[in-house]
Amino acid sequence: MSADNARAHFGFAKGAVVQEFYVDDDAETTLRDLIEQETGEELVDEDYDDVVDGALIWWRSEDGEVEDLTDLLVDAAGNLDNGGLIWVLTPKAGEDLYVEPFIIAEAAKVAGLSTTSTASLGKRWAGTRLMSRPRK
């Protein structure tokens, strides 16, 4: 995937602070690097204690059930400054630890998020783009 394609898929603005959750050894560094290039900022970890502009969640079937992902989405959305993007990255179909799309859709709905698109990202990962509602 080229940097231009990833920018079109991710949609994070220059200067955006993106918080990353559940990153592990299997996370594709190419995708992480593309987000950092796109934003001009380093990704911050789940312990970051300030508001952020977006979130990146690496989720695998072993990470939990729908309720666990829902809780994580609520936490991630709670850190967003006036709405923002959340990407849930899961192993592609046929890969170890694959997550059925309905799990992400159900968790997003319960968390009050809207699913806007899906994309094939990198060699092993698929992404679901979620939008949070701006705070009133």
Describe this structure in words.
This protein is an alpha/beta fold. The chain has a single domain, classed as Rossmann fold, CATH 3.40.50. Helices cover 31% and strands 29% of the residues. The chain is built from 4 helices and 5 strands; from the N terminus they run H-E-H-E-H-E-H-E-E. A 5-stranded mixed β-sheet has the order 1-2-3-5-4, with helices on both faces. Strand 2, helix 3 (66-78) and strand 3 (80-91) form a beta-alpha-beta unit. Helix 1 crosses helix 2 and helix 3 crosses helix 4. It is globular, with a radius of gyration of 14 Å. InterPro entries: DUF3052 (IPR021412). This is DUF3052 domain-containing protein. It comes from Boudabousia marimammalium. Pfam families: DUF3052.
In short:
The protein is α/β, with parallel strands linked by helices. It has four helices and five strands; from the N terminus they run αβαβαβαββ. Helix 1 (3-10) crosses helix 2 (29-39).
Proportion of helical residues: 25-40%
Low-confidence stretches: 1-7
β-strand amount:
25-35%
Q: How many strands appear in the DSSP assignment?
A: 5
**Structural Rg:** 14 Å
The CATH topology corresponds to Rossmann fold
Average pLDDT, all residues: 90
Protein name: DUF3052 domain-containing protein
Pfam families: DUF3052
